[in-house]
Design a protein that fits this description.
It is built from 50 helices and two strands. It is mainly α and about 900 residues long. Among the domains are: about 200 residues, no CATH class; about 190 residues, Tetratricopeptide repeat domain (Serine Threonine Protein Phosphatase 5, Tetratricopeptide repeat, Alpha Horseshoe). The chain has a two-stranded antiparallel ribbon. About 45% of the residues are buried.
């Protein structure tokens, strides 16, 4: 929830224009984004930061991390002429050495900050940036350029704020004789500018100062990376500024002079014999790229066509640049021309097939696809035809190396990330937060998967990213409602309704619903009545009105109203569900069942009614009857997570653990987002005797719902049992966590003897023997007076604690009493045998240990304990024999 909390904080502190700047800056750099997603670090920083945008710079965040971890004042790190403490200088130097030797990017923002400090110290010592590229860049390997970017992008984003001569550093890289290093410098510049929370004008000024005097290819490199980072508007403005640079004006005038000379060739001339400068198509393509980045796609297309005419050898590649974004009518057949020019090009055929699919010419697409060899791209195209979903084709390359020639602006690749998003696997995809289209696709998939908190997080981000888009606040309000976060839903929709002269009925319905859920009953009734004046048979408004009457305490009026509603619109399942809900909440379960059964007859095969019938029967402890309805509902609506959960619950209650597991297994990797699922999943795993898998699931469920005694007890028993039987040191963190959960559970149920018992068990296993002994003793007194409760468990714990405190008499007596109550319990006998040995009664100890072994001769844990016991008592032969 760190992201969502932070987005709310941004909304509270900044006006809309600055919210957008902050949100865009946060997602740009991967290590900043990682920091933002780390709740225990991010929230303390931003809550203590001021209301200035400078708090959102990578430098400010890195400095805060370094100062906190090394207990140094932040001012010492940000002073331009300050001196770093020797200890910190050494730490920064080691970080630099480690990064350079390993060739791996920094793992976190803290390390990137240390690298930035190391480079700043280097600048102070050398007095200039001369030779810096040779000192920091990897020079070998085909991926060296991109690897250098990954290593240094965050560092340079930090240095932008820390260095007064950041431009000098960038120019040292850009003006390198090594082309790859120069391009890397441009990419680092663009990333640094976009990662810092500055206005577009400030970004434009810095970019212009750095690239306007450089060769055209490097200017295009900067424009291309702006495009790759979805900063089209900023790129357009920069392009228009660069086109006015005198050297560019002169260059392009010369190019078009040559083009006009080429155009003057008569029809009788053989172009193959005509002497034409071989690099003219490249220059034409460069101007075409400038046209594209300036926003004139049509002019770009026309100029690329000129390049095609000049050099037919690269026709197909250049033609692709023309048709990829063109709206020219002739370009509708562009893909076919590419295929005809390059009949052996698989990529050309793939692109043409994609166009056919987009135009729904699937027969022709399948015919051409049959001629292609098998490949992942072919599989994605086939999957698109089968699913009927529109495949996303990326025309720009994001966060991967751009195409080699700087004048190729489009790279057609089937984007598997977006295909997978369309294939209902959003939760397993890494989302590019710079791509609004991908965010929308992921958000919609989260909604379909009922992962509403994830969808809310993405929508809240979109709201900051696109403040002028009125769809996002409305979507956010509706998502709050779907997630059951009614206070937030009310606040969001109230603002929307107030800002509208004539609010949409959909918005008014949510306003009424959220008012009802936030105990604003009169308001909800009033809004519902207003809706019904516009739409007298609006089902949702009628339902809300009935629920408003019920919530106000007028049960009779509510029931009478809803009974009339189901007569008027019996075809609406929600009306039956609402009437049943009112009966159920009034304690009339039989009447609720009756209503649902009538609804199921009125609307045969409605999954919602069948599902609710099953849920109600489950609540009435009738899992066999419930299973019938829940199975039928699931067959009609297999995507409903709530229905799947209750179907699994019915199977669990009937002891069908394997069937329950088959339903719940897909949720195993994401149970942390749903306490109900984690609880049921844990109990199902317990039923399948998979305690090791069940323990972390139940621990999570208990931590999320400490008031749920059943799940807390189950988790505690697993943790205690494992700690009791291990021969190694118990898991301290696990014991601490369980102790905290038990303490919270006891806040709600302070007199629960079993919770008290397990808390004492945890304290004993933590080595707090006297505290545990006192708690056991208090419980023993309660058991004596009440003659009920966990008597043998108390005596067992009392005995173990007393022995560990050196009180042999009390310890032995308590364990003997526990064994008398549970003579066939190996755990008690283990403790009693150890007590006899401690009391120097070896024969009793041996006899008791043998008795424990005979009780469970095939239990591995029992055998291991016996072998360990014999070995500890100087009888290794007996230990080996037992094993």
């Amino acid at each position: 929830m760190a992201i969502e909390v932070l987005l709310d904080l941004i909304k509270q502190r900044f006006p809309p224009s600055e919210r957008q700047i902050a949100a865009k800056a946060l997602q740009q750099d991967p290590l900043v984004w990682q920091f933002v997603n780390t709740e225990d670090e991010c929230l303390p920083y931003f809550e203590s930061a001021g209301t200035e945008l400078s708090a959102f710079t990578p430098a400010a965040q890195a400095v805060w991390l370094i100062s906190r971890q090394n207990e140094i004042e932040s001012e010492l790190l940000t002073q331009q002429d300050g001196t770093l403490p020797n200890a910190l200088r050494q730490i920064a130097g080691k970080a630099f050495e480690s990064t350079f030797n390993s060739g791996l990017p920094p793992a976190d923002l803290y390390t990137a900050g240390l690298l930035a400090l190391a480079l700043r110290e280097r600048r102070k010592m050398e007095t200039s940036w001369s030779g810096i590229s040779d000192e920091i860049f990897i020079k070998r390997g085909t991926a060296a350029g991109q690897k250098n970017v990954l290593i240094w992008q965050t560092v340079f984003s930090i240095l932008l704020s820390l260095l007064p001569d950041f431009i000098d550093l960038i120019l040292e890289l850009i003006q390198s004789r090594n082309e790859q290093q120069a391009k890397t410098g441009v990419q680092l510049l663009v990333h640094s500018v976009l990662s810092n929370p500055t206005t577009n004008q400030e970004k434009l000024d810095l970019l212009y100062r750095c690239v306007s005097g450089e060769p055209i290819d490097l200017q295009l490199e900067a424009l291309k990376w702006l495009q790759a980072n979805h900063r089209t508007s900023l790129g357009k403005t920069l392009t228009l500024s660069l086109l006015q640079v005198k050297s560019n004006v002169d260059t392009f005038a010369r190019i078009f002079s040559e083009w006009e000379s080429f155009q003057a060739i008569s029809g009788d001339d053989d172009l193959l014999e005509k002497s034409i400068r071989f690099t003219l198509p490249e220059d034409l393509s460069r101007f075409a790229a400038f046209s594209y980045f300036s926003g004139d796609s049509q002019k770009a297309s026309e100029t690329y066509r000129k390049a095609v005419k000049v050099l037919d050898v690269i026709k197909a590649q250049t033609l692709f640049q023309a048709v990829a974004e063109s709206t020219h009518p002739d370009d509708q057949t562009g893909w076919l021309e590419v295929v005809q020019s390059l009949p052996t090009s698989q990529k050309a055929r793939m692109a043409y097939i994609q166009t056919l699919i987009d135009e729904q010419k699937t027969d022709e697409a399948l015919r051409l696809m049959a001629e292609l060899p098998d490949s992942p791209a072919k599989s994605l195209l086939e999957a698109q035809i089968v699913s009927g979903s529109k495949l996303s084709v990326s025309t720009t390359s994001t966060r991967i190396p751009a195409p080699s020639p700087s004048y190729f602006i489009h790279s057609v690749e089937i984007n598997p990330t977006k295909v997978l998003l369309n294939s209902k696997t959003a939760q397993s995809i890494e989302i590019d937060f710079a791509d609004p289209e991908m965010i929308l696709m992921a958000r919609d998939q989260y909604i379909q998967s009922q992962l509403y908190d994830k969808a809310i997080e993405l929508t809240a981000y979109l709201e900051l990213l696109e403040p002028e888009n009125s769809v996002n606040p409305r979507k956010l309000a509706h998502l709050y409602a779907l997630a059951g976060r009614w206070a937030q839903a009310y606040a969001a929709i109230q603002k929307i309704v107030k800002d509208q002269a004539a609010p949409a009925i959909e918005d008014l319905l949510l306003f009424a619903d959220s008012s009802l859920h936030t105990d604003r009953t009169d308001m909800s009734i009033s809004i519902s009545q207003n809706i019904l004046k516009q739409d007298p048979q609006n089902p949702k408004a009628l339902i809300l009105l009935g629920e408003g009457f019920w919530q106000k305490g007028d049960v009779v009026k509510a029931i009478q109203h809803m009974e009339k509603v189901v007569e008027v619109i019996p075809e609406e399942a929600e009306t039956w569900l609402s009437l049943a809900r009112i009966w159920e909440e009034n304690g009339q379960f039989d009447r609720a069942l009756e209503v649902l059964e009538k609804g199921a007859v009125a609307i045969p095969g409605d999954p919602a009614l069948l599902r609710q019938l099953g849920i109600l029967l489950l609540d009435k402890q009738s899992p066999t009857d419930a299973l019938t309805y829940l199975k039928k509902a699931n067959s009609l609506d297999s995507e409903n997570a709530k229905g799947q959960l209750h179907l699994a619950k019915a199977h669990y209650q009937l002891g069908h653990f394997s069937e329950a597991w088959q339903i719940l297994e897909p949720f195993f990797d994401k149970y942390e987002g749903n306490p109900d699922i984690s609880k049921l999943l844990g109990f199902v795993l317990l039923g399948m005797e998979k305690s090791a898998q069940a323990k972390p699931v139940l621990l999570h469920a208990a931590s999320q719902s400490p008031e749920d005694v059943e799940v807390v007890m189950a988790a505690a028993r697993l943790v205690i049992s494992e700690a009791e039987t291990t021969f190694e040191e118990p898991n301290k963190a696990e014991l601490d966590g369980m102790k905290n959960i038990l303490a919270k559970a006891l806040d709600a149920q302070p007199d629960d003897a079993y919770l008290q018992l397990h808390l004492a068990d945890i304290e004993r296993l933590q080595g707090q023997y006297q505290i545990a002994l006192d708690r056991y003793a208090n419980l023993a007194d309660r058991m004596t007076s009440n003659k009920a409760g966990p008597t043998w468990q108390v005596q067992y714990g009392l005995g173990r604690s007393a022995l560990l405190l050196g009180n042999q008499e009390m310890g032995l007596a308590a364990l003997q009493e526990a064994a008398a109550k549970q003579p066939e319990n190996p755990i008690i006998l283990h403790g009693l045998a150890e007590a006899y040995q401690y009391a120097r009664l070896p024969e009793n100890a041996t006899d008791t240990a043998l008795t424990a072994l005979k009780l469970a001769p095939r239990d591995i844990q029992n055998i291991l304990w016996y072998a360990h016991f014999r070995s500890e008592n100087g009888q290794p032969d007996e230990a080996v024999k037992a094993l």
